Amino acid sequence: MSHPSGQPALVFADTQGNITDFQDLYTAGMSVGEFKLPSLEDFIPLPEGSELFVLPGRLPIGCSRDTGEALLMENDPFTGKDIQAVAAFMSPAHTSIFNSAFQSTENAPRLPLFAYTAVGWYDDRFWTTAFRSDKDIRQDCAQFNQQEINAKTAKKLRDNKNNRLIQHLGKCCLTYACPAARNYFLGRWEAPLPTSPVCNARCVGCISLQTSGKCSATQDRIRFVPTPSEISQVAIPHLQLAKDAIVSFGQGCEGEPLLQADTIEKAIITIRKNTDRGTINLNTNASLPKSIKCLADAGLDSLRVSINSAQEQYHRNYYRPQNFSFSDVLESIHVMKNEGKFVSLNYFILPGFTDSIQEYDALCSLLHTYKPDRIQLRNLNMDPEYYLQSIKLDHPLATMGMRQWFKTIKSTFPTLELGYFNPAIH
Ligand code: SF4
Hints:
By secondary structure, the protein is an alpha/beta fold. The protein has two domains: 9-132, no CATH class; 141-419, TIM Barrel. Helices cover 29% and strands 24% of the residues. The chain contains eleven helices and 21 strands. The chain has helices at residues 146-159, 164-174, 179-185, 228-241, 261-274, 289-298, 312-319, 326-338, 357-370, 384-390, 402-412; strands at 9-14, 19-27, 29-31, 34-36, 43-45, 51-55, 58-64, 70-72, 83-89, 94-96, 99-100, 102-104, 119-122, 125-132, 190-193, 246-249, 279-284, 302-307, 342-349, 374-379, 417-419. Strands 1, 2, 5, 6, 7, 8, 9, 10, 12, 13 and 14 form an eleven-stranded antiparallel sheet that branches. The chain has a seven-stranded parallel sheet with strand order 15-16-17-18-19-20-21. Helix 2 crosses helix 3, helix 4 packs across helix 5 (261-274) and helix 6 packs parallel to helix 8. The protein is globular, with a radius of gyration of 22 Å. The model has no long low-confidence stretch (mean pLDDT 97). The protein binds iron/sulfur cluster. Iron/sulfur cluster is lined by residues 199, 201-203, 206, 208-209, 255-256, 285.
């Protein structure tokens, strides 16, 4: 991956959202409220399919060309008018090294549920502080042809009018452009199997249900529980025919799938009666270890456990669990590994928190004890300041830097996979 030959300049936006570069200041990075001058190795070209967001009520912070010191930019240096900070929302398979550097003004609105990565301008292009964390191209925007998607989706919807799950996935594909739903209708890679309208957690950054009224969920939750037959009608042909076939319970458009464990168990049994091809995966908050045992016995191949932190208090403050605890989550990993199955952590990355010594030590202890096979490095998709407030972290932590964190984890756990997506096990 190429890096810039010089420090990218700060970019900012006017009140209309027009983005301009300011050559007198370098792009700065934010790491839990601390501002740093990223090194050239931290930058990559802004990946295709990424978006640029302007951050309302936030003023950009850049670094002095002379001293590297962080400096606040309060007005447009060319017009004196009001300005806003800018961030990159990167396309999948890329992990943040620094957040966009900004200072919030009073009454700044809460930012919606996206990740806000530092971005700058150099040599006529945008550069962002990140690295590609998975070579898999399943969600690269170049892989999607909208005409083909429209045609294949329309045909499958016509041919399956009575299958509510396929009709639901049609909306995910055509309305939300969900990459997993698109790949289902294109008959390849990983297909989604949402099942649960309800959840036993109240995550601060839940993308399918936001009750605060301060920011909206990014997609609506499924409103029904599909039958085992509706589920297997989606899964069986996909597993039998798709390349690197995976079907995954636990999607962004639902609550917690383990609350539908009976339905999922029946579906898995039906699926495995018809095909032993492909991977059956479950994305989950891992709250119910007993249900995990039943699903593993039924034929579940892999488990993806979502956690924001390996420290109990921060997990509790983020997940706001209803009748389960972090020890249940750890027990679920233990149960699945005990069954000889594959376990991934879906680990929310926040620069300045994830690479803190405190969090790193807690993660290492979890990895040593429970031995998951893979970590999926997913950027935390929410307002970083509101997140820290919600988990009750009010001070910067001693950190090692995300690139050093990545190197250290790799050398400390050489057999641990580091990626972004659920792997095909079979
Ligand atoms: S576990 Fe998932 S569905 Fe439940 S509140 Fe958290 S993010 Fe939302």
